[in-house]
Amino acid sequence: MRVPAEGFILALLRHAPFDPQRLLLERLLREAYPDALRDGAFAPLRGRWLRIELVGDDGRAGPGWNVTLGSRGLIVVAGPVAWDVRIAASIDDFVLLANQQADPDMLFFQRRLVIEGDTALGLAVKNLIFGNELAGAPAEIARLLWRARSALNRPALATQAGAMPALPNQ
Question: How many domains in the chain?
């Protein structure tokens, strides 16, 4: 019997210690958006909180991360915070977005990408994080997630999105 990939990945994230997740996510954000960070594009997050959350196949909230802009760049913290905006989607949809196989606006209007709270902040963040092609380590993570999804047999994702796109540094 095969374990559904989404359930497997959610279980892994729920049981993984937070500090390695935090360090990995902070590094990925730094490497994915160096120009945006340098140019101040993330300034709207200074003193405000973005909640990035995974949603399971059953619609229940899964693991999530709280992100804000600090003096040394984007930081990720654990625990409950009073978030200003929450962006949530399934692992499948985040993988599709990371690989530029889905339009974030289309997913939003299909209610597969949820943005709650400060809508203006949410739309600005959505456009910033999903509007750029990933390169370097983030592109490698996107490829790794794509391969993991395929290896764990999620035919719905493969038929919906087609083949994995060629990304830089492949």
Answer: 1
